[in-house]
Specification:
The complex is a heterodimer of chains A (431) and B (311).
Chain A: E1 2-12, E2 17-26, E3 29-34, E4 43-46, E5 51-54, E6 56-61, H1 74-84, E7 86-91, H2 102-115, E8 119-124, H3 138-144, E9 148-150, H4 159-169, E10 176-178, H5 183-186, E11 191-192, H6 195-200, E12 204-205, H7 208-224, E13 228-230, H8 236-247, E14 252-256, H9 258-262, H10 285-297, E15 302-303, H11 312-315, H12 332-341, H13 348-363, E16 378-388, E17 407-417, E18 420-424, E19 427-428
Parallel strand pairs in A: 1-4, 1-5, 6-7, 7-8, 8-9, 9-10, 10-13, 11-12, 13-14, 14-15
Antiparallel strand pairs in A: 1-2, 2-3, 5-16, 16-17, 17-18, 18-19
Helix pairs in contact in A: 1-2, 2-3, 4-7, 7-8
Chain B: H1 15-31, E1 46-51, H2 57-68, E2 72-77, H3 89-97, E3 103-108, H4 113-120, E4 124-130, H5 136-150, E5 157-161, H6 168-179, E6 183-187, H7 197-200, E7 203-205, H8 208-211, E8 217-220, H9 236-243, H10 247-251, E9 258-260, H11 273-276, H12 283-302
Helix pairs in contact in B: 1-12, 2-12, 3-4, 5-6, 5-12
The chains are: A alpha/beta (431), B alpha/beta (311).
Amino acid sequence: MALLLKNARFVDPAVDLDRVCDMVIRDGSIVEIGEDLSIPKGEKLDLSGQVVIPGMVDLHVHLREPGQEYKEDIASGSRAAAKGGFTDVCCMPNTSPVADIGSVISFMKEKAEEANLVRVHPIGAITRELQGKELAEIGDMHEAGAVAFSDDGRGVQSGGMLRTAMDYVKQFGAPVISHCEDESIVGKGVVNEGVVSTRLGLSGWPSQGEEVQVERDIELGELTGCAVHIAHITTARAVDAVKRGKERGVAVTCEVTPHHLFLSEDDISTEYDTSYKMNPPLRTAEDAAALRDALIDGTIDAVATDHAPHARHEKAREFELAPFGIIGLETCLPLLITHLVEPGHMSLDRLVEVMCHNPRKIVGLDPVTLEPGSKADLTVFDPEGTTTVDEDLIESKSINTPFLGQQLEGRVTHTILEGYASLVDGSVVDR
Amino acid sequence: MLSVTDLIDANDLTREDVDTILEIARSFEEVNKRPIKKLPTLRGRTIINLFLEPSTRTRSSFEIAGKRLSADTINISGSSSAVAKGESLEDTVRTLGAMDSDMIIVRHKYAGAPAQIARVCDSVVVNAGDGKHQHPSQALLDIYTLVQKMGDLEGKRVAIVGDNSHSRVTGSLVPLLKLMGAQPVLIAPPGFMPARPDVLGAEASYDLDAEIPDLDVIYLLRVQMERMDGAAIPSVREYARFFGMDRTRQERMKEGAVILHPGPMNRGVEISSDVADSADNLVLHQVNAGVAVRMAIMYLLLGGDMSGTAA
């Protein structure tokens, strides 16, 4: 089946491409990019005014299956990913049972194939049941298709345990993904320790609770030679630690969420709205500004949503009791366009790097570029369109987002995997 | 009447609000001295005391206040309610609202609960203490007690001694003291200080002995040994030695200075027995003031009928 994309602006810095022209896709691959192309038969899409980039990858999502399907499952999460323009997602192991063995990894991949909307690359647990005590069967999970290993949801509390894990993981060429949280420092913290914890009478979650593990994990990465990727980085000092690690030649990378880029603790009011409660918490406005600068200058490698669905009744609880996390797949690209691309702070080239190329490199996925011969994984968006964050936008089973009701700039229109659309003109395809 | 329709956060009150509450409380205090302590002011109103955290003094105080004003007050406590059966806070409150209750007075273990309640029902909401956040009626009765005793609070130095980092009393008292022109000073070991006292507008000190001669009021918080997230102090003995009010410290107090305590007191910890029983300690005045001030709060928020208060 042939697919002809006409009049789009194709952007891919990996091949020095930024051009308004046409593209022909056949049998799942890009066959030609040029002016005035045509195909004898097949489907044609007029994408005038729209932008086409290589398919986006979200390194950090929680799909909640197996075990917590009332919040989300792989099928609904796949729909949310397609809606957001993602061709690939990496899902975290804090399911029930935990993905600490190959059979759960295989199950996740099977469910994703059934949904047939997005490629799911499971991340396996580092330790059994995320307890931080015994190594999980990493080899078994790797064979089943796990692309990285993480105890996300929790930080690994023992440095010795993490060192052992890194020494084991590195033989598979995969990275360890670190959720940095020292539980003895953080305790019952629910918001950043400082101005807002004082004002609202809530237990503080100090920045140092994250930073001590960021520093530690980079050091252990250096000691072992294992690649370490810092998940959801939130503070200026943590970013600085990554920068220094990179300067020393340590194989460290990091990701940031849209909410940490664009929100801060100042957004948490006496309404005690739990859609501002996440882990790690929203930090200071200065931290958010430092994260934006670091994303643009290259210190931060990728944007990842940490999509964390929770049921309405769970988030409608007292602030201290509500679970941490917000969804993010559907709003990610419009938020980046609204706050970084449209105002001219971040170029489209850089957007492609942090949403497509860097995430693929970090977890070892096959590269995707806009050139003949490459797999046709594409994200298409209308930079002049708008996205209203309402029930129509949200494909996830859960609607826990602080951006509800906002009007954002940019609209994801098509998501294409190997030539087949999972999203057409903003609607998820029924496959 | 008041600039607010619910009483959730002391930071929402204006100086006029506080003066109004104090004035009305004074007339109710007079009523409380009569043999027949009853006014028809809130007759026919339904007031629910929803106490989801244990309390004796605050709950009795609100209950008596409501009954003195002829309201129909009912008490619901955490363990005996549907909350123990797993009902969500919002559902509990919607149920009460559906019974046409005029006012819900809520004490809750977690900060933000009164604000969340106010969003889901039409009843007037009064915060009787939410987690570590606010306890406005306590702070108001404290201000009332101080004004009765020393008149104008302008320029007075008021120390709050104890676990200020886990205190809803501090959260409410500091802004009200500032409204009245007083200077709050938080005195505690570092582990008991809030992350940002400056954000509250209070001074901070680790040295009670150095501060005592300049203090007009020493407000003692109960040291909640059972509520500590990881014990910021090594022992009761150590705390009492450096921060407890005892006879020696009492003798160094300024002329006319007083001691307040929200109760219940831990004799031998933050206050020694002899100081607890001395005339400088206004704790029983506070309790007495509490009923009058809570009557004033209920009256002002529910707009009752003031006839019958004239002597």
